């Protein structure tokens, strides 16, 4: 068990009837290079997942496409049988090709197969939350999600899924999904420098729906800003810590899922997200993405 005691920043949020910590963990980086194949350090990956739970984090984000299958199998090996308080959020709607691409897989048969594969590899009978991944690797794309989302609603009625969400979605697709069935979260790219979803975040907050930013630290191109660096220097913190703390302050419905394959980095992320930002800090940071 971990000897580190950190009070998780941000408190808690409810995804439907599931209570999760606002500071969660994204498992994507546990797979090999390019999110393909096994990790170089298998035992190290298991150690990260066990530290996640030991720190009190109750929200893990994953997908069977990571690896593929690698991260889900690692989660099962490290943490199964799962604590009642731990909730695993997965996504379907994309697969992997031999070149490491992410081709869409949103036909009804693709989605049904993906849900069953997530269940099998995670060792679950019901998935807590399933996000329908839309768009492509370049971002959201317009178009109806009805057929795909209705397939997941049917699987939900069968008891295989508890709650639904959407990922990489336009505001119109979020609205369309909500017209079909309740959703508990939206997972889109968003961070200090990419703030195209500001209006959507505020609308979702009013409805009690979580917004989960992926690439909260910039993804494959880490955030770089003179303003961010200045605030970080003033606080004697890292720029990434400040970026995470800003997200938690941005709106109460934002849930964080930063990923890492390092126990030390995981602890730094948790501690850093608890930074206290002044009004001056916030005003300076708010200018970055505007």
- Element string (H = helix, E = strand): EEEHEHEHEHEHEHEHHHH
Alpha-carbon Rg, integer: 18 Å
Task: Specify the helix fraction band.
Answer: 25-40%
- Beta strand %: 5-15%
Strand ordering within the main sheet: 3-4-5-6-7-8-9
Count every helix, treating DSSP H or I runs of 4 or more residues as helices: 10
What is the oligomeric state here?
single chain
Summed up, what is this model?
With 290 residues, this protein is of the alpha/beta class. It has helices at residues 42-54, 70-79, 108-122, 146-157, 171-180, 198-207, 226-235, 239-250, 263-272, 279-286, and strands spanning 12-15, 18-21, 25-26, 59-61, 87-92, 127-133, 161-167, 185-187, 210-211. The longest helix has 15 residues, at 108-122.
Key structural traits:
disordered N terminus, 7-stranded parallel beta sheet, two-stranded antiparallel ribbon, 10 helices, single chain, 290 residues, alpha/beta, 9 strands, 38% helix
What is the topology?
Layout: E1 12-15, E2 18-21, E3 25-26, H1 42-54, E4 59-61, H2 70-79, E5 87-92, H3 108-122, E6 127-133, H4 146-157, E7 161-167, H5 171-180, E8 185-187, H6 198-207, E9 210-211, H7 226-235, H8 239-250, H9 263-272, H10 279-286
Parallel strand pairs: 3-4, 4-5, 5-6, 6-7, 7-8, 8-9
Antiparallel strand pairs: 1-2
Textual characterization of the structure:
This protein is an alpha/beta fold. Helices cover 38% and strands 13% of the residues. It has ten helices and nine strands. The strands form two sheets. A seven-stranded parallel sheet has the order 3-4-5-6-7-8-9, covered by helices on one side. Strands 1-2 form a two-stranded antiparallel ribbon. Helix 1 crosses helix 2, helix 3 crosses helix 4 and helix 8 crosses helix 9. The radius of gyration is 18 Å and the shape is globular. The N and C termini lie far apart (43 Å).
